[in-house]
Amino acid sequence: MPGRPTLASSDRDRSRVLFWSVVAAIACAWFLTLDARHLLRTDEGRYAEIAREMLGSGDWVTIRYNGLKYFEKPPFHLWMTALAYQAFGIGEWQARLWVALSGAGGLLVTMLAARRWFGARVSVLTGLVLLAAPAWNLAGHLNSLDMSVSGALSCVLGGVLMAQHPDTTKRARCAWMGFAWAAVGVAVLTKGLIGIVLPGLVLVVYTLAARDWTLWRRLHMFSGALLMLAITLPWFVLVSIRNPEFPQFFFVHEHWQRYTSTVHRREAPWWYFIAVLGAGFLPWLGLMWRMAKSAGDDAPSAAFRARLFLALWAAAIFVFFSLSSSKLPGYILPIFPALAVLAGLVLDRLDAPAWRRQILLMSVLLALLFLATPLVSHLGYDTTPNSLYRVYASWMAAACALALAGMGFAWHLSRADVLRSIAVYALTIFAMGTTALLAHETFGRSSSGVDLVPRIRAVLTPDMPIYSVRLLDHTLPFYLRRSMIMVEAPDELEFGTQQEPAKWVPTLDAFVAQWSSGTKAIAVMEPETFAKLRARHVAMVPVAQDERRVVVANFTGPPP
Prior knowledge:
Blueprint: H1 7-31, H2 43-57, E1 64-65, E2 68-69, H3 76-88, H4 92-118, H5 120-132, H6 134-139, H7 145-164, H8 170-191, H9 194-210, H10 221-242, H11 246-260, H12 272-280, H13 288-294, H14 306-322, H15 336-349, H16 352-371, H17 373-376, H18 386-414, H19 418-439, H20 441-448, H21 453-457, E3 466-469, H22 476-480, E4 485-487, H23 494-499, H24 508-515, E5 522-525, H25 527-535, E6 541-545, E7 550-553
Parallel strand pairs: 3-4, 3-5
Antiparallel strand pairs: 1-2, 5-7, 6-7
Helix pairs in contact: 2-3, 3-4, 4-5, 4-7, 4-15, 5-15, 5-19, 7-8, 8-9, 8-10, 9-14, 13-15, 14-15, 16-18, 18-19
């Protein structure tokens, strides 16, 4: 009958509803869990507190931490966090909002570029791969610069791919390259010179490998560089004018010395990032050999070899950081969007038997993890008691059991519809990663020190100093909404104490003298420091204590 929907159109409508329902569920899981955990040491507390101090002081140029100058990183991430505080108030989810937006934005831009080059199916597969990559999920929910800069570099990668597609018009190419250059500026303003060094390195390596010298004429270098400088230069000039010591510390100490020496004490073996890649891309490791082979599948006559560019993006950045003397897990996070597209291309061609082998491999790993949960329940340390590990082991067992059920469903679907099977597999791994993040609150709450805050506030007045004795506590200042005065061990605030020596106490003896001067004060320290000062008969009244820290006052009774 006229007007009656056909069976095919009805199926399409149901598929469309299912697709957007899944997208909505993913968005809820991605964003609505941001405040389900307290802030972790060190990055989360540090950057949350710096942004809080920035908003409170109104100084958006000179970055400060515990009131001291802090020039290890540029301010873009901190600006975005401070703006989130201004718009929505100060809290955990506001502190994590920018990284969550960066992760989601990087995923969407990567999918857009994959769709442009390889079609809608590969685009969906790319999104599923990146969503289920543990490294991307974890970094997208931790208040750290790694995801902020990776989100910006994902936009650089996506912008270049969109601009270099052979069907892109001249005007569209100019717009997409402008987008890419603006993203370079954001990356530089987020984490420094790697924002331009990494894309530049990839372009050079690609040019040599593909012998594509004409690419440089299509990058809009002059206008792009002007746009990038317009984004980055104002802050760099202003902060250098106000703080003449900034250029040497930032460009020499924080870039050259960090890369070429162990001055930051972040040494690791040459294979360190192989292990990080294995853990961060674990659900898709079985595809790596096929992904490497697919890098050469571009047509030799192609004006731009997208597969090769993606492979070299991942390889060049991986090697660059592997050669560095300073290594941290988040450094190689920018390679994951490129790997996701390559994995999506492999999955697009994968037959059902090969895909079932992938499901079987992951099921074996999950079963081993499930069997290891009793071992986790027997762990315990001075700062993390066994009772917390027992709770976490229960979470771990439940997550593994649910994931194994998801693998079973994916196996069942693989016989009739490989794409839906891949979707169930990826969503299962994403749900497991999200559960692991939620479960970490078992440890995170006690680590954050938030339970000490009510007892401290009961005796604290607005003008009362708080000393941090031989300890840089990265989370307690945020929850107290108060900065602290460093004593004897400045930790990463050494540069700030050198620039403003009057703002800290350089020795324990000097602290004891100030502590005993009659001015009412609070001090935070580790239990070992508390025992040492008590042995010296320093008058201290315990206010609050947990496994990691002791909070004391130099007075009894209520404050004036």
